[in-house]
Structure formats: structure tokens, C-alpha cells
Amino acid sequence: MLKFYNTLTRTKEDFRPLNGNTVTMYSCGPTVYNYAHIGNLRTYIFMDLIRRTLKYEGYKLKGVMNITDVGHLMADSDDGEDKMAVASREQNKTPWEIAEQYTKVFFEDLAKLNISKPEIIAKATEHIPEMIDYVKSLEEGGVSYETSDGIYFDISKFPRYGCLSRANIEEQLAGARVEVNDEKRHPADFALWKKADPLHIMQWDSPWGKGYPGWHIECSAMSRKYLGECFDIHSGGVDHIPIHHENEIAQNEVLTGKQSVRFWMHGEFMLVNNGKMSKSLGNTYTIADLEKKGYDPLDFRFFCLNTHYRKKLNFTFEGLDAAKTSRERLTQALIQHKASSAATDKAVIDKLRGEFRRAIEDDINVPLALGILFTAIKEPKSKDIYELALEFDKIFGLSFDKIKASETVKEEAVEIPEEIASLVKARAEAKAAKNYALADEIRAEIAKKGYNVLDTRDGVKVTPVK
Ligand code: AMP
Ligand code: ZN
């Protein structure tokens, strides 16, 4: 039975879709004002792992990811300027040009990391009417109020406010800094709609004059449009728990009274040298940075797979090097399994497959599942192991299908005994004489003595069976 950890209940719960066989899922997407850094990308690898797990379990997916191209202010709690406006000024481009540029690179990064795109990609700027409608309904429901700079959600109208982070709002606020906006009734009230000054580039007509949407209403409006009032899964990074997702819950549920999201799932943060990484601190890396240093984006994906999504992951280049080496070793082993015509006992395969599935069903335990793959490749070389690895790769997404049997096998400094060397020679002679039956017989004899023979572009390679 598939189990996912639900942030809302702080427990692992059995997962079943609300409706039939199709899972409805919303994932908070990027704010496209800059390149995604490797921390952001860890969160999208996490989203991808949820999606792959659901597919592996036989479910269909209806996934939505937003592209925030307006309204996300410098601080999540509605302070500061719109991130898009800042980037636009700094780079001397329109916010639309900025959005287009970084959205394009974002999807290129996802493709490099084998992250499948959700079925629906929803740009905030293409859903302004839905957002205005949403704010109007909240206004009609009497849960918002107007100030000189916008329309705000009144959290006192939603007694469960704080249910996701389990924060005691009053306690939290007692220690908080002085509120900048003294027109707000409560410091945690948040903007649904911001009124724009004439110089603000991105602005739309609305019942409250010209302005732009608040960041939180974007996700509520787009998830409701595509997935309805109640859907199965909402994913994002842990930083979204206390403000962004808390606010989404308040907007979604204050008028319906229904639980809008069945499973809230959050990916832990990536750190750099054990510290916080963020674009504003300037200690971030992009996929392009890693490529420039000679890494394959899949080295980074593999690096991420080694740590469970609910654990912090500290990024270092030593760690990435270790991942690269380990992935190389894996590839070498898989080349040999692929080249083999031998079979593996079905019972052995079934056992490995069962263990793998149990790991995945236990809240996507990919590190454990990788361990099972490493156990599998230690089996005597066989095409069945390669086939099994391909099946596992539906979760890992490491492109095992692109491994070519003809890829050069790295020389290992091993001494080949005389006896084996002369058998290899005899096999080469048999092949030269087109006596393939004899060549295969000799290969089998060599295998019995504990060695694999592999024909590669660079000649015959002989390696001991591990
Ligand atoms: P943003 O583009 O800033 O809206 O962030 C995109 C996603 O990346 C969000 O889901 C964040 O939760 C996530 N995120 C931001 N920083 C990190 C980090 N250091 N590690 C992992 N995820 C992060
Ligand atoms: Zn969101």
C-alpha cells in the first residue's frame, strides 16, 4: 500500500485518490525572475519523484504547475517590491521579457534533469480574470477588507488559520518585527490584490482600480480552476508551509468549509556548505554552473536521489564528485548486464522487485531503493538484471535506457590468469573462423571460471564477475 507523509497530519498515511484512478496534484512552480538554483531544482526533482511513484503504482495524473510571473514580492509575507519588477529594472527588460527568458531556461533545466513536465502549466498572468473573480467571492463572503494599497484577507475570519504549520499566530507575532503596513487589522493578514501606482509596469483593471494579484491567490485560483475545490496532493518546498500554503488553505477553505487538499507534501531544503542558500545571498549554483564544471545534470539528480526528500541535503562539490563516481560505477555494471545473454533466477528478480516496491511505497524511500539497485547489480551478469534496472529507472529517471552495450568499459587493473587469457584467445580464433557456437561455448566456460568477456568497440574486455 502506497503511503505518503502528510504535513497536515504529521503522519504517513495510506494514499488513495479522491476520484477513481486519476490523481490531481498541484505543485508550486518557480518565480521566473532569475535562473532556478540547485535548491529550487531539488524541490522539482521531489515533485518528479511523487509523479513517477504515482505512475509506477498505475495511477493517471492530472498535475498542474504554476509559473509565477507577477505578484511574488521580495518577502513572502507581502513586503517589498514585486520580484519581477526588480529584475526588470536591474536587467533593463520588460517583466514579460524577463519571464519569457527564465521560463525557457527553467524548462530546459527540467528536461536535462529528466523531470517530466506536469500536464498543465499555468502562467499567473494568463489567469488574472480568475484571480479577480476569486477575490470578489472572498469580498462578497465578508472575509476581506480594503486598505489604501490593496484588498486583504482577514485571518480572524478563518479560525483554523495556522493549521498547517501548527503555529500559534499570536505567539509568533509577539516576537516579530514592527509591522510596516499599519492599515492591516492583523499583521498576518495578507494581500489578495495590490493596487498599483502608475509607474508599476504590470497592472490590470479590476473592481478595485488598476493593480495586480497577490502571490497566494494565484495558486488558489489556478488550482481551483483546473483541479476543483478538493484535490489529492499539493507539493512545494518546506519554506512555503508557514505563509504561502497557510494562506492558500485559508483562501480555499474559508467559504467552502471543505478540506481543499488531501495531502500536503513538502520537500526539505538544500543547504550549501551547511548554510542557507538563496539567490539573495549569492551562494547559489545553477545547472549551467555545474555543466561548466564538467558535471552531467544527471550527476546532480543522482546526488539528490541519495537523500530522502524529507531530510536536509547539504551540497558540496565533494558530495557531487562522489555521486558522479558512483553513477559511473553503476553505468559500468549496467553495460555489462546489458551485454550478457545469461538469465537470473526469477525468484531472485521477484525478491528484488518486491523490496524495491516496498521502499517506494514507504513515502518514496528512494535512497533505500537505490541500495536495492546496488544489491541487484552485484548479481552475476545477466540481461534480466538490466531489464529490472530499466523498470527501477521509471522512478530514478537516470536514463538507463540510453546506456549502450558498446560503451567503453573502463579498464580495471586486474590480472587475468593464464588459463583465462588462453581461453579468450581461443574464443577470438573461433570467432575469426566464424565458429560462433564454439565461441559461445568458450565464453560460457570463461564465465564458469568467474570472468566476463565483452566485445566492445575498443576490443575484447575481460573482467572478473563481482
Ligand atoms: P521560488 O522560485 O523562489 O518561488 O522557489 C521555487 C521553489 O524552490 C519553491 O517550491 C521553494 O520552496 C523551493 N526552494 C527555494 N529554496 C530552496 C532550497 N534552498 N532548497 C530546496 N528548495 C528550495
Ligand atoms: Zn504556490
Automatic annotation (TrEMBL):
It comes from Candidatus Stercoripulliclostridium pullicola. The keyword Cytoplasm applies. The keyword RNA-binding does not apply. It catalyses: tRNA(Cys) + L-cysteine + ATP = L-cysteinyl-tRNA(Cys) + AMP + diphosphate. Keywords: Aminoacyl-tRNA synthetase, ATP-binding, Cytoplasm, Ligase, Metal-binding, Nucleotide-binding, Protein biosynthesis, Zinc. InterPro entries: Cys-tRNA-ligase, Cys-tRNA/MSH_ligase, CysS_C, Rossmann-like_a/b/a_fold, tRNA-synt_1_cat_dom, tRNAsynth_Ia_anticodon-bd. It is found in: Cytoplasm. Gene3D superfamilies: Cysteine-tRNA ligase, C-terminal anti-codon recognition domain (1.20.120.1910), HUPs (3.40.50.620). Binds 1 zinc ion per subunit. One of its GO terms (cellular component) is cytosol. GO terms for molecular function: ATP binding; cysteine-tRNA ligase activity; zinc ion binding. One of its GO terms (biological process) is cysteinyl-tRNA aminoacylation. Residues 415-459 form the Cysteinyl-tRNA ligase anticodon binding domain. Belongs to the class-I aminoacyl-tRNA synthetase family. Its EC number is 6.1.1.16. Zn(2+) binds at residues 28, 219, 244, 248. A motif ('HIGH' region) lies at residues 30-40. Signal peptide: none annotated. ATP binds at residue 279. This is Cysteine--tRNA ligase. It holds the Pfam family CysS_C. Its cofactor is Zn(2+). A motif ('KMSKS' region) lies at residues 276-280. Monomer.
